[in-house]
Fold:
Amino acid sequence: LFRSAPLFSGVSSLKVQNVKTSCVRMLRTHQVLWCQQPIKRGVPYKQLTVGVPKEIFQNEKRVAISPAGVQALIKQGFNVVVEAGAGESSKFSDDNYKDAGA
Structure:
């Protein structure tokens, strides 16, 4: 059997007053939208190289990126360089990284 008890029996009620204030919303546009100077483009992904070093700390078993992550970066156009043995403690061989495109 369930006994019906108020859920908030120990909570006292407070009266809330609605205060109306005038709010002015302004639309802010990015400077690029109204700037007269030509837009400077960033560096294309194909010109960027992502390096994956081998961890040097004792008992460190993590690696910065997995072969699946390397494959995703390669697909987006990045160059990826992986140090030999970087994924050995994480059970990723150098061949896994080579197959992924590094």
Summary: The beta strands are 49-52, 79-82. The longest strand covers residues 49-52.
